[in-house]
Amino acid sequence: MNKKAVYIAGVSLLFIIVILVEIFSPKEPDWTMSFSRYSREPYGNYLMYNLLKTLFPRKEITTLHDPLYVVLKGKSYRRHNYLLLNDRCIFDELDSRELLRFVSDGNNAFIAANNFSDSENKWLAEALGIETGRYAEILTAMRVRFVNSRLKNREYNLKQEGGAYYFSGFDRESTVILSINERKDPVYLRVKYGRGFFYLSTVPLAFTNYCIVSPQSDYPFTALSYLPEYNTVWDEFYKIGRLEAQTPLRFILNREPLRWAYILGLTTIMLVIISGAKRKQRIIPVIHPVINTTLDFVTTVGSLYYQNSDHRNLSQKKISHFLEYIRSRLYLDTRELNDVFFEKLASKTGLTFNEIQKTFALIGDIRQKEHVTESELVLLNSKIDNVYRSDGIR
């Protein structure tokens, strides 16, 4: 056996050992709130989905992987339940309209999410007349109980993740409170809409694998028992952090043994290619890249403005370039610099709302001044650079 074969065999054996250790070594739980029926992690819904048959025996349970607008548009459903468990209720206007029509026709929708009245996805909440609130303090657990007199003697200590939500507003004529928390705020509602009902819960973690294997395991089943025994549609499309692979190889990638076999095969092929890629041509000469004179030009022009103490002209150009950067790089409209714009820019850059607000307050002041001092120009440059760095441009 020559040296080349020994090298390939040794490297291949090393990779096989690393892969085997990775497969059989104990893994830390993934605490991502995926709410996916495919996830067996603590905050997945593998157990909830597979136990639905005990709640709806003799009924069909199907899974959606498409938007509600596509699934419901132009179709008529009778005696169906729709289930969505997620961190947020993120229906857009078209989805909300079709879901409202679906429930109005006599069907039911069960939605468990922390926030129903998100500023960017508020159409469903406005149509139902509901609002959600969040407690200011950080909570890791919340005691809840059902209002029903036959169930009110039992309290459930449900896990929270970073905070607890509740329904701060609802239409009392069309809404029935089904469950409240320890502060007597509603966390589970039934809302009459047309000939059907919406069942809304602000404790989605109660329906995850973590809760089902805990002593509070009967809470999610009691909550779902309010639904009639209809054919049930489970929604996977709107989940945050979907676990389903979106490639033609999804069957292989979604099964761990096949996925590792696929990775091992690709690794072996790459080793063969690398070991066989022996250089047979002449040495390729090094071609140095063309010098970027644009940076030198920018430095020279900037120095000229600075030496002439034309701080106002330079500040106006920096502001114009900064706003163009926000439009072209972050895709935000800069025609109205209001609180909504500040919140969107803060979410895209990772800066706080106050930092963004102070930066644009300084920009507004400098725009109105006839004379800009050197210290104001330096401060403006510092504020703008802070936004650039947060977006990773530097």
Summarize the SSE layout with pairings.
Layout lengths: L2 H22 L21 H5 L1 H4 L5 E4 L3 H5 L7 E6 L7 H12 L3 E5 L10 H6 L2 E4 L6 E6 L9 E4 L5 E5 L5 E7 L4 E8 L2 E6 L7 H4 L5 H7 L6 E5 L14 H4 L2 H21 L16 H15 L3 H19 L9 H11 L3 H16 L5 H17 L4
Helix pairs in contact: 1-10, 12-15, 13-14, 14-15
Detailed description of the structure:
The protein is α/β, with parallel strands linked by helices. The chain folds into two domains: 46-235, Rossmann fold, CATH 3.40.50; 303-390, no CATH class. Helices cover 43% and strands 15% of the residues. It is built from 15 helices and eleven strands. It has helices spanning 3-24, 46-50, 52-55, 68-72, 93-104, 123-128, 209-212, 218-224, 250-253, 256-276, 293-307, 311-329, 339-349, 353-368, 374-390; strands at residues 61-64, 80-85, 108-112, 131-134, 141-146, 156-159, 165-169, 175-181, 186-193, 196-201, 231-235. Strand 2, helix 5 (93-104) and strand 3 form a beta-alpha-beta unit. Helix 12 (311-329) packs parallel to helix 15 and helix 14 (353-368) packs antiparallel against helix 15 (374-390). The longest helix is centred in the first third of the chain and has 22 residues, at 3-24. The chain is flat, with a radius of gyration of 29 Å.
CATH class of the largest domain: Alpha Beta
CATH topology of the largest domain: Rossmann fold
Cα distance, first to last residue?
Answer: 52 Å
Beta strand %: 15-25%
* Uncertain segments: none
Largest sheet: spatial strand order: 1-11-2-3-10-9-8-5-6
Looking at the overall shape, the CATH architecture of the largest domain is 3-Layer(aba) Sandwich
The total strand number stands at 11
Q: For the CA atoms, what is the radius of gyration? A: 29 Å
- Protein structure class: alpha/beta
The shape is flat
Please trace the helix and strand order, writing H or E for each element: HHHEHEHEHEEEEEEEHHEHHHHHHH
Query: How many distinct helices?
Result: 15
Biggest β-sheet, characterized?
Answer: 9 strands, mixed
